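Dear colleague,

Following up on Tuesday's group meeting, I ran the structure prediction for the two-component complex that the binding team flagged. I've pasted the input sequences exactly as they went in, so you can double-check that nothing got truncated or mislabelled along the way. The structure tokens for the whole assembly follow below. Feel free to forward this to whoever is handling the docking comparison.

Inputs:
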Amino acid sequence: MAIDWFPLWLSLRVAVISTAAAAAIGLWVAWLLANREFRGRELLDAAVTLPLVLPPTVLGYYLLVLLGRATPFGHVYEWMFGTPLVFTWQAAVVAAWLHSFPLLVKSARAAFESVDHSYERAARSLGAPEWLTFARVTMPLARRSILAATALAFARALGDFGVTIMFAGNIPGRTQTLAVAIYDAVESGNGTLARTLVLVISGVSLAIIWFANRMGARTLGGRTPEAF
Amino acid sequence: MLNARLRRKFPEGPGSAAFSLELDLNAAPGVTVLFGPSGAGKTLTLDCIAGFAQPDQGRVLLDDQILYDGAARVALPPRKRRCGYVFQNYALFPNMTLRQNLEFALHGKPRLERHRRIAQMLERFHLEGLQGRRPHELSGGQKQRCSIARALIGSPRMLLLDEPARGLDAPLRAELYATIRQVRSDYRIPILLVTHDLDECLELGDDIVILREGRVAQTGIPHDVFDKPASLEVAQLLGLHNMLSMEIVTLDPVRKSSKLRYLDCELDGPYWPGHLIGDRVWICVRPKQVMAAPRAARLTPNQIPVTLERVRERVHGLRLEFSGDLAAEDSNGNADEARRVKDWVVEIPPSAMRLL
């Protein structure tokens, strides 16, 4: 029996896009949480962490309520792109993003906080604007931990099931990601397909975690500067 | 010229006592040493001037520019203050070469200008040929000079050094002092140096500010401060010996003299204006000016019989510590010979007595 590899490619595509989006916003939020003192900082941290502990069905429900067809966002989206967001592969990206974003922010905040602050202070005392300090000092020093955090977020995005099936549905050939396809295969008694897909996703995830651990083990400018 | 008036309160927290910083500080071009024990607020003061910490109230003026004003709610960010800061660990960016480290401080300057200034700094701080090295490939002295060069390359209006000599061995320390002296003569800017090393105060300081529990205990030229500590606390901070509590027995304004009682001995002293007979006063005598000798049959004036408690060998001679909190220095004595004698006399000349 020929195996339909579409779910794997879709999952990879969804995970890449959602991780990129999570990194773009998440690194900025993590930097804010790690470096700025402002009112409601810990509240923001708690709000960002919430998706990590809520059941995926709850997250899916929130997405439907906030971004569904009947909502203001849904109207604007449909008016702009001609189709609704829900039950498309783009919806799967949003679902995977929500699933992986908290993990990225959490680990990136820890990574930024592990950078010895005297380097950032030195940069500021030398007249460097904040963006330059971030780009030339903080990021390079936290690079490995940030890479590790991104890899973990990618693995999490790849493995999302609950939020995706609530918000993007289970449409074979359109929104059926790997995790959803496995569920489908088991339900319909297709043991060979289920086994194959399970082995594939386990292997990919193992490789990613191995990479993340290798990256996280050594951090520049943090606790072990001589490792550089 | 720096003028700072800083007020900051920290409430008592778990594991830390309440602390309040309350100081006024003026620093002219030259080296001003901030001296004090750990926890006196030295680094906090530096951080408030550099902008890494905010006082609750006060004002920081540098060359008539306001860096911080609590009442007007002005607080310039560190990058606009133009205060060079040398960190204890040097804080050289490990991901950049020495040249890139210097160039980082010249952000926004034209290329030619950057090139000129880097060349100038490399020469001034003897770093030629090391441009391509990363911090971990530099020796301790090179790192030190590089971090000072980096702090100065953007022409700051002030230089702050946070315990730069901490943890350095003697040769490196000497090298650092030479570098700081060079900076003092090349740049006419205030240099604020935090230390808890007394030799550093005497060797480098044009002025010294003694901090204790967040307050200024005394300011002045180092030699004056060592000669005339303002209070018992300052004398103890400076590690001065021979702090003697004496009672005034007689005062003779005509002959400009007095008699003092210490350990049942009467000593001749100078006249103390403003004091009365019966007052207890703190007299401070430098160990160098105390004369010690094995006890003879008869005591001459101003000699106190004492017993030897300890002999410390130091780089330059011996320090003899006696009963009654007295200490003397003997520059060419022999430790074993000194230890053999138990009973001594020490003589305190009236001219050596300083009143706290």
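The radius of gyration of chain B is 25 Å.

Cheers,
M.
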